[in-house]
Amino acid sequence: MISAVLFYVFAAILLVSAAMVVSSRNPVHSVLFLILAFFNAAALFLLAGAEFLAMILVIVYVGAVAVLFLFVVMMLDINFAELRSGYQRYLPVGLAVGAVLLTELAIVLGGWKVSPEAVTLRLSPRAAELHNTLQLGRLIYTDYIFLFQAAGLVLLVAMIGAIVLTLRDRTKSRHQNIAHQIARTPADTLELVDVPSRAGVASIGILRPKPAPQPEQAEASTGHAEGHH
Amino acid sequence: MIPASLVTFLGAFFATPAGILVLTVLKALAILAPLLTAVAYLTYAERKVLAAIQLRRGPNVVGPFGLLQPFADAIKMLLKETIIPAGANRVLFLLAPMLTFALAMLAWAVVPVADGWAIADINVGVLYLFAISSLGVYGIVIAGWASNSKYAFLGALRSAAQMVSYEVSMGFVLVSVLLCAGSLNLTEIVRAQQHVWFCFPLFPMFVVFFISTLAETNRAPFDIPEGESEIVAGFFVEYSSMAFGLFFLGEYANMILMSTMTSIMFLGGWYGPFGLLPQLGPFWLIVKICALLFVFIWVRGTFPRYRYDQLMRLGWKVFLPASLLWLVLTAGTLLAFGWLPRA
Amino acid sequence: MNWTLALPEIVLACCGMAILLIGVLQKRDTFHLCSMLTVGAFLITAELVVSGSPGLGYNGLFTVDTFSTFVKLLVLVAATLGVILSLDYNEHANLRRFEFPVLMLYSTVGMLVMASASNLMSLYLGLELQSLSIYVLAAFARDELRSSEAGLKYFVLGSLASGLLLYGVSLVYGFSGTMEFARLAQALSNPAHVSPGLTVGVVFVIAGLAFKISAVPFHMWTPDVYEGAPTPVTAFLSTAPKVAAIALLMRVMATPFGHLLVQWQQVIILVSILSMLLGALGAIGQRNIKRLMAYSSIGHMGYALIGLAAGSEAGLRGVLIYMLTYVFMSAGTFACILAMRRRGRMLEQISDLAGLSRTDPGLALAFAIFMFSMAGIPPFTGFFGKYFIFTSAVQSGLWTLAVIGVLTSVVGAFYYIRIIKVIYFDAGGAEFDHCPASLSVVAAAGALFTTFFFVLPAPFIAAADAAAKALLL
Lengths: 229, 343, 473
Known about the structure:
The structure holds three protein chains of three kinds. Chain A has helices at residues 2-23, 27-47, 51-75, 80-83, 87-110, 132-143, 145-166, 178-183, 186-189, 215-227. By secondary structure, chain A is mainly α. In chain A, helix 1 packs antiparallel against helix 2, helix 2 (27-47) packs antiparallel against helix 3 and helix 6 (132-143) packs across helix 7 (145-166). The mean pLDDT of chain B is 84. Chain B is globular and about 60 Å long. Chain B is built from twelve helices and no strands. Chain B has one domain (80-336). By secondary structure, chain B is mostly helical. In chain C, the strands form two sheets. Chain C has a two-stranded antiparallel ribbon with strand order 1-2. Chain C has a two-stranded antiparallel sheet with strand order 3-4. Chain C starts with 6 loop residues before the first helix and ends with a helix. By secondary structure, chain C is mainly alpha-helical. Chain C has helices spanning 7-25, 31-51, 66-92, 99-116, 120-138, 145-176, 181-187, 196-212, 221-228, 231-237, 240-254, 261-284, 289-310, 313-338, 356-359, 361-375, 381-395, 399-425, 437-452, 458-472, and strands spanning 55-57, 62-64, 341-342, 345-346. The interface between A and C is large, with 34 and 49 residues.
């Protein structure tokens, strides 16, 4: 009973927040509603007994992906009025596509019958004695290892793509070379000079400790100087 | 002497749904009340330790040895006015500190303070803790954005990038612990350390984890989201009174939480050192937490703040490869010697 | 579990990672080295494909048979040609980056998986691996607006197509309870038990796959992407992925949904007719040769689908032969297009070809051979491809389809031959830059295959025959 009530509560919040994602005027609010929707989806997973999926949903989507969404949306100055300018014009098309999909869904649901041949074909019967983290692990790393690795390749390509399309070697930025910094000794940079009393620095002929250093040292010293920013 | 009828009545009552609810609330109170006191005294301890490091005396006026100082601070904060800046997003501005504080409290639901002493001893306790700690970033980001101030926003962006970066290597560290323990349940993880604490075989990971917790809680030397010298106070520059107080409480509660997590994952939780000394309820866990908190403060007193690029470099170019490598090593060793825990 | 079934894919993926490491760790420019290593990896993979033994593995996710072997070899040949075509262009266009061949390699891994997929999930992952790499490749000239636009457009529309495909897959799974091809075929063996929901699912799957082969009405992206992407990417895009996607469509339609021929046949026929018409009519007005090739490829996919619509063994064999001839024609044509460079600037207008017969007779001849072949004029390969397709359609009683195909071929011949007219009879411009060896090799290989296929067609036809038989088992 309680779980049924909880299910309806979470499902209702999920639907409302999903609707708010697309309808709210402020994009930051949209992302926050999206996060709320994720949370409720996670709660539904929990109710269904899939605690591993629920936690992973929160960690991956809420904890990482949505943070980046939020990051981007906050940084961008999106003009929503402009984005909505085509709204009126495209509304009929959108509605038509939506209506077609809805009718199809209705037909599909109306014709829901499982063919008798299919009943025996359930892909992965649940082993009741194991909790679902273990079950998922077994399935992913044994039966579906091929898919798991292929998905890994897809992610690798995504990573290569992101780097290839955005990484630029910035020649102007001064990189810190930590090895250089640590390898320096006081003798490289410091010179102790006895200054005669009451004669001033000018009397010993230097105002700066050392003249132009070698290029390698120059790099090290700029790195160091930067370190004190 | 408790009359027998009362015992039976209570037994029956706690079996009903309402009774279960009351019991849960009582359990939550039993953990939250000491926690909040601990938070209050952590601020006091921090000031005293820092003072000692800097050869000062620290708070010593309010009460004996300044012991009532945290309460004085709390009363001061409660009595001040909450100022909401013009142009701020009111709802989110007030939501952010509540969120931070609530999350810091929520995580404690699964923490086993002693064998069997957890409010909810769930199967995926580690994931729950990890999920909650990864949500902490929202309080900060929302606060920074809702304040409508550039310093706050800069602080929020820094913090978001920082927390997301360090979570990755933290995740890998957790996986190597899980490999050794063979369970996602926190109690099981502690039990797996009855004889050998994981901080010995996994020492490098222990160090990585501890440093990552510093970054995750935005503590020195990774406190660039609030770096006073550059962006005033970062994401909570616009906050005052209890809204600020909630951030403050949240940050310290998170420190305690992270220390607890480290103790549970690496330092054998409630077990005494090497099994030599008897197990005294939560005593050893509290000792370990205090020791780690001392290190938190010690680090703050002795290290200069990292620069932003140095922080990112450490996270992505040092910790991530190191933790990945160690993960592979751990898995390989466990497999090669047949030490994998049975599921 | 017989994991060696996927040995070619595993080896190729590992080679990719090794090449990536070499590229990252070497400080100097490694584009050339990595490209050569990629070609080497393709050769090794081809050897493994040939020596592999047939079977079904990985819990029913992956199958190796003569069909997959045929398709994989063709894909590897096409990909090799693609890498060779990119060598010279990338040097000049300042795209000398080692990630280019690596992305092509991973795209090829995706295609190999597609060729062997025997489960809707491995189908989807192969397709995504293939497409994702190509999205990136299309946007590879990131400082150029056209290229970025092409990449983005392809990505957005491709994601939409993937969404449709997944929707279809989920419907199929929901109504049949399995995603394995063999079990699906078994579950659907009695068409009377098939619910309309499943038919809707199949249609969505077809829509998703039709996008990948740029068949009408899912062709909108093709001209823009072909024009905007760097030309070697366009060359790659128009050969290997087309083969893999057509092969995938053939396997999905023939194996799991083979009993539903009546349901999907009309859809394929419609898509085929529309593609042929649009390919023929859309190309007429084009001035840019890359756009023209886009419409031409839409038309060619329409012809290939005729064979699929026939649903018979002869039809499937026809499709395979068609794809074989198409790969060589298309790669050769793009080699010629890539040779269109004057004083370091790439040219893309058809009018730029004027007078080519006098300035560079060899290139002009190659161009003419490919155009004649595309138009389907004997004795070039294009004719044989169309011949097998049309006869199979007639055998299956699809007269209308065959007639429309012949008519659109005639229209198509008009614009192909117009290019030959520009090359041979129009007053010319200045000479092109010297054609680099890599392009000459590809153009010559393509031209030789296209011209002399009729001398020894038997082994190819026999291979296609065996492949088609494997599919209908």
